[in-house]
Amino acid sequence: MKFNVALPAFLALFAASLLPLSAQGEAKVAMTVDLVAWGDTIEGLSLKTEGKGETLTALPFTYSTPARYTGPALMEVHQKGGSNSSGNDEEISAEDAEHESKPLVVEQKPEDLEDLSKSKDPIVRELFRRRETEPSLVALVKLPTNTKRATVLLAPAGGGLYQPYVINDDPSKLPPGKLRVHNLSPFDISMRFSGKQKADLKPGRDSVINAANGRAVYELSYKGPKGWEIQENNVIPVRPTEQTQLIVLKSDNSYFLSSDGAAGGFMQIVILRRSAS
Prior knowledge:
Residues 1-23 form the signal peptide. This is DUF4198 domain-containing protein. Residues 77-115 are annotated as: Disordered. Keywords: Signal. This protein is mainly β. It has two domains: 9-167, no CATH class; 178-275, no CATH class. 13% of the residues lie in helices and 41% in strands. The strands form three sheets. Strands 1, 2, 3, 4, 5, 6, 7 and 8 form an eight-stranded mixed sheet that branches. It is globular. 28% of the residues are buried.
């Protein structure tokens, strides 16, 4: 299924302020990582981590099974088989096993890869350099070094590769019982909450909101092509035992369509929540 995502311009500039890649490679981290698909389900993923790795699936805009990661702060994400995996667990021959041990290359569109290969982004350039010997590599993720947990959103970048966006989920950044709002759309947004709290956010910014009585009542406005418009008024539960995040984005993925194919609004809302334990 084809779909488009509107990633804010700040992602394209994300790597410009990073340390040289050689310095990044020296930093080691140990944390729990949650992979979330910005679009359709992504199967056959794995992290290049110390110890035994595991095959992971990133679900659309929701948490799945978390993974432990220990290794360089510049984390490698690989994909083998992906959505073309048959799920057949029967034994295979020695010849098939030999081929199975080799990385599978995701089918690429040459024009997509050619455009990406011209990028001046140091992370993208490093990605292509490593793919010369590791063609299963589909994303490089710069992880924070001051956290024990992170969410990594994987957005299609063309040519079978993915562009990551990292959310630091350390409790100091995301306290249980509070709501963190992220604007990952390309538009300015304004959110008004009960108790006179507000979050006026440029693309790429976030804000933590106190939730009264275990819920957050909000009004969402955005500055679209026609100026400021109100999209919705809503209420979401914010439980004291959970980390809760509200992400505002722009996507035409089928995840956001109703059964009759209608979109719910100009902007899309995603709620990510997990137990704080």
